[in-house]
Amino acid sequence: SLKIECTDDYPIIFIDSNAAYANNSGAGVITWSVKDSSGDYCNTASVRSLIDDTPSNDSAPGRLEFMTTTSGTTPTTKMTISSEGYVTKPSQPYFKANLANGVRITGTGYVVFGSAVHNNGSHYNTSDGKFTAPVTGLYWFSSRINAYDRIDFQIRVNGSEVERGQYNTDSDNVGWWSNQLTTLAFMTAGQYAQVYVTNLDQNSDPDLWCSFMGYLVC
Known about the structure:
Elements lengths: L25 E10 L5 E11 L10 E7 L7 E6 L5 E2 L5 E5 L10 E2 L4 E6 L10 E2 L4 E12 L2 E7 L2 E8 L8 E12 L4 E9 L10 E6 L2
Antiparallel strand pairs: 1-2, 2-3, 3-4, 4-5, 6-8, 6-15, 7-14, 9-14, 10-13, 10-15, 11-12, 11-14
């Protein structure tokens, strides 16, 4: 263990780099390691600083990259804070799926949105319409169905309703109507979310008129 004891109220630790003074040059890395059963060191996580734009005299815009390690691999970047303060997370789960080409919803039951537009991490299944949470957290979901006359549907998590909506009129055959649901749901890893139609007078529009989407909030 290392202890750094300072007398100032605001101690500063400098890591000075002699790397090339150019965009994307590294300015330093802090890495954590542990010993395996054979006594070899294995890296678990790192924080890396890099120049984030073309530097000038006395000015070097910088970014931070936070890197973690899955089993049997070297650290890879999971979150970046740019010099402008933008935070990006390339592994953040998100998806958007529409009905497959030419497909309509024609009755009650779970809906399979078979055409994925986005599916980061492949956590949405176009075969059964399920999004499975890869980690425990708070998730945002939204679904839109455009149907003729009445349409009632729900967003469900593990088969239990978390949000419902309907459009109902006083008479049948009044035309096409769009209904959209949006919700937040806390899910544990392995739970799944689906869209379920409880009442449909006739049928839905096909393709892009009906969609299901979501992402991990935190």
